[in-house]
Amino acid sequence: MSRPSAGCVPRLAAGCRFSDAPGQGDMLLVPEGALRLMGVGRKIVERCDGVRTFADIVGELRAEYPALEPARVEEEAAKFLERLHEKRALDF
Predict the structure, then answer these.
(1) Which domains are seen in the chain, by residue range?
(2) pLDDT tens, 7-44?
């Protein structure tokens, strides 16, 4: 597995994009199919713009969800991005 480092800059892989079909706002289209983004998944993927680092993304999520334990925010975000990377939907 490839875990994102603090300085990596995640971005959608070539050929991946959000669905623009009505009612499918939380679908990430990938060359092999589609992935439904659950919970804060879309918020995380939207931040994977090729500009923000993983540390930036975690910082923004911590600010947006201050009630959550900071270490848990980072751990869950890292696991989520790892899974997307394994599915070839995200590049670091």
Answers:
(1) 11-87 (1.10.10.1150)
(2) 999 999 999 999 888 877 689 999 989 999 988 999 99
